[in-house]
## 1
Amino acid sequence: QVQLQESGPGLVKPSGTLSLTCAVSGASISSSHWWTWLRQPPGKGLEWIGEIFHSGRSTYNPSLRSRLTIIVDKSKNQFSLTLSSVTATDTAVYYCARRDLRERSGGMDVWGQGTTVTVSS
Amino acid sequence: DIVMTQSPDSLTVSLGDRATINCKSSQSVLYTSNNKHYLAWYQQKPGQPPKLLIYWASTRESGVPDRFSGNGSGTDFTLTISSLQAEDVAVYYCHQYCTGPYTFGQGTKVEIK
């Protein structure tokens, strides 16, 4: 079955750069899905960060756009997130997920287990 | 941004009873080209990622028990659990994917009485 696995540093210093990768197994990243990043601050709700299609077309949350880059690496069947100039408010569990095309459902039907990122000196 | 507001924030229900969660969007989430409401419901249990329950406001995801149902149109939606089971204890989120940035409700915590 399709599985997603996030990886990256669990601790990032303030003003530093947060980099995460989501490895996709059991499916091709070139399938007709959007590959999505979300986050959840401790004890809080979900925030959509952005997503990318295998073509490289991406869409970002405007609140993060100036600091955010999402790329896809088809050779490694993975996609990545980079968030610069982080502060304590970026501390969260970061999830990657697969979103179906809206014409088929638009639902995020496969999720990674999440990775905790703490921004602290 | 479309603001999603859920009510109540928490809900305590007896086993076997009905649980109803409301979700209101600040703008319509109807995609007029195909007359679909781009509204989903997710269930999140402690320490786990969210799980898709409902999409297009009322279509149950494959494998989701039929005690879960979604309804609504325009800006007002509901998730109903017809007969609450112990394994349904979780936080439930509504989510609009009609207009970017896609947004979530604040969540409704469902507990057993």
## 2
Amino acid sequence: KQEVTQIPAALSVPEGENLVLNCSFTDSAIYNLQWFRQDPGKGLTSLLLIQSSQREQTSGRLNASLDKSSGRSTLYIAASQPGDSATYLCAVRVTNAGKSTFGDGTTLTVKP
Amino acid sequence: DAMVIQNPRYQVTQFGKPVTLSCSQTLNHNVMYWYQQKSSQAPKLLFHYYDKDFNNEADTPDNFQSRRPNTSFCFLDIRSPGLGDAAMYLCATSMGLAVITDTQYFGPGTRLTVL
């Protein structure tokens, strides 16, 4: 059974700092890995999707990497801003079952 | 324009009183999912539809049912809500089951309160 872990559970940084969020998973037989952002009381917004054959994806200040062999993904946020404050979740999509397993998320606070 | 719409955004029901949550999509996606998310926890998949094929997760309680009358709409029925069913319910869609580039699109969620 796929298990997804995100460490740390919470992170607080000053504005402008670069930061890394971590996601680890136990089964490397994945189709893709997706990073989401969730604001309090809201739904999930997709940030980046990395296919199993890819090593990284970039969008603006965000860069996500994937190392399937070690079961790890990181989300790098450059020059953090207060508007980046949210919970970030990673979701691993397993084989062709169409199902994703989510981590519990990392709650990020960026202080002005 | 909203692509995955959930109604209502907030639902209050009484213990044991059936409730139905609604999800609609404008993406014409084949797959629709229902997740339950409790505070500070990961979304937990309850079930999904691939077209008309219903797939229930092994640990989804019988109290939870779903209907998909057409491609655009999917409903979550909670037959006898208990206090433990209070949560955010998230609907999501994706193009297919085995599409490696497939992204899941989520709706804004329905916050269910059980009194």
